[in-house]
């Protein structure tokens, strides 16, 4: 029955929405800090180990790391002492010449993928990113099918099915109304 | 009639969600497997509260029980403190080193803790949290068991007991050095 399909479609949509909410993929990482902010190596002296670190980069890296003592807070957002120390480690590693990816890799090596706030877009966790869109697609297809069924149905059969006797009675009563 | 299709369409949509939820609510989100097991333990060199240098490198060849703790960690660190000292006394002559690493603490409070429990094994503060992050510590207490070759072999989260310490240390001591 059409209503059955409608509720099935609704159920699939619900699953898609729930999946979407659960995954809640944050917007893609902000673009890397412009090159201009990085200090150019001095011509006379080669840059020492303590390169000046852009605080924006520190913040970007820290915002991708889970604060280990908090509930769903990034290292960038947490005021805790642990997060402060982790930000210092991020800064120190960047200063030592690590790329943001290398800094993240260091934390993953120690804590596992768990330390990353958004799941990796590869391997098993890719599912978390893909399933909501697949569910949404299936839901849209089902809705399209249902809408087509609904819009096709009234045409054809309906007018001819009226009993000639009933039609005659309607005609008679309507003409009576006109005369009264 | 499309009724038969409807009969399985809704369960087909709902059952996977229920299964996922059932699985999700059964797992403990606080229980995170350490990726460090079986890997070489991160080197550290700290200075103990007593002022002696303490580095993992110097302990090579010994089985090391590395305990992360804090005086503010109530009650777990207080619960396990006597067991740590008992384990140290029972194993120090068998090639085991017990090391305490004090995390995010005030020195006075940490010293008071060590006095109170008469800890006689080396304890060092980790003032900038470097060692804690190197070991993937996300709370206190956590205890790491490091074999003679310097690899992390076991991680215990929460208060340590004599039994757990004994089981891990005996197993590591039995391995050929």
Describe this structure in words.
The complex is a heterodimer of chains A (about 180) and B (about 180). By secondary structure, chain A is an all-alpha fold. Chain A is built from 7 helices and no strands. Chain A has helices at about 1-25, 55-60, 80-95, 100-110, 125-150, 155-160, 165-180. The model of chain A is unreliable at about 15-50 (pLDDT under 50). Chain B has one domain (about 35-175): Glutaredoxin. In chain B, the strands form 2 sheets. A 5-stranded mixed β-sheet of chain B has the order 5-4-3-6-7, covered by helices on one side. The mean pLDDT of chain B is about 90. The interface between A and B is medium-sized, with 26 and 29 residues.
Strand content of chain B: 15-25%
Radius of gyration of chain A: 32 Å
Provide the β-strand percentage band of chain A.
Answer: under 5%
- Pair with the biggest interface: A-B, 26 and 29 residues
Number of strands of chain B: 7
Q: Which blocks of ≥5 consecutive residues of chain A have pLDDT under 50?
A: 17-49
Distance between the termini of chain B: 75 Å
- Main β-sheet, spatial strand arrangement of chain B: 5-4-3-6-7
Describe the sheet with the most strands of chain A: none
Q: Mind telling me the CATH superfamily name of chain B?
A: Glutaredoxin
* CATH class membership of chain B: Alpha Beta
Query: Number of folding domains of chain B?
Result: 1
Helix content of chain B: 25-40%
Query: In DSSP terms, counting alpha (H) and pi (I) runs of 4 or more, how many helices of chain A?
Result: 7
**What is the structural class of chain A?**
mainly alpha
Euclidean distance between termini CA atoms of chain A: 45 Å
Attribute tags:
heterodimer; A: 180 residues; mainly alpha; 0% strand; B: 177 residues; alpha/beta; Glutaredoxin; five-stranded mixed β-sheet; two-stranded antiparallel sheet
């Amino acid at each position: 029955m059409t209503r059955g399909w409608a509720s099935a479609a609704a159920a699939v949509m619900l699953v898609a929405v729930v999946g979407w909410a659960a995954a809640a993929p944050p917007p893609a990482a902000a673009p890397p800090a412009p090159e201009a902010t990085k200090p150019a190596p001095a011509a006379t002296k080669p840059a020492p180990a303590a390169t000046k670190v852009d605080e924006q980069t520190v913040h970007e890296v820290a915002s991708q790391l889970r604060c280990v003592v908090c509930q769903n807070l990034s290292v960038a957002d947490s005021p805790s002492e642990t997060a402060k120390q982790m930000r210092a480690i991020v800064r120190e590693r960047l200063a030592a010449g690590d790329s943001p990816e290398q800094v993240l890799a260091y934390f993953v090596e120690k804590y596992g993928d768990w330390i990353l706030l958004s799941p990796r877009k590869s391997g098993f966790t890719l599912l978390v990113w893909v399933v909501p869109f697949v569910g949404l697609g299936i839901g849209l297809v089902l809705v399209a099918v249902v809408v087509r069924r609904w819009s096709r149905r009234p045409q054809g059969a309906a007018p001819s099915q009226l009993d000639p006797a009933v039609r005659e009675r309607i005609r008679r009563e309507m003409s009576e109304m006109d005369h009264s | 009639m499309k009724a038969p299709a409807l009969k399985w369409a809704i369960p087909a949509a709902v059952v996977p969600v229920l299964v996922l939820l059932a699985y999700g609510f059964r797992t403990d989100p606080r229980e995170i497997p350490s990726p460090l097991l079986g890997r070489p333990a991160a080197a550290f060199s700290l200075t103990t509260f007593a002022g002696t240098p303490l580095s993992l490198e110097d302990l090579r060849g010994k089985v090391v029980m590395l305990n992360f703790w804090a005086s503010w960690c109530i009650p777990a660190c207080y619960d396990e403190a006597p067991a740590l000292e008992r384990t140290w006394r029972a194993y120090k002559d068998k090639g085991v080193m017990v090391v305490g690493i004090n995390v995010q603490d005030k020195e006075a409070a940490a010293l008071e803790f060590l006095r109170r429990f008469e800890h006689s094994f080396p304890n060092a503060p980790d003032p900038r949290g470097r060692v804690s992050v190197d070991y993937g510590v996300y709370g206190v207490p956590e205890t790491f068991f490091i074999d003679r070759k310097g690899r992390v072999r076991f991680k215990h989260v929460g208060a340590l007991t004599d039994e757990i310490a004994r089981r891990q240390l005996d197993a590591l001591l039995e391995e050929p050095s």
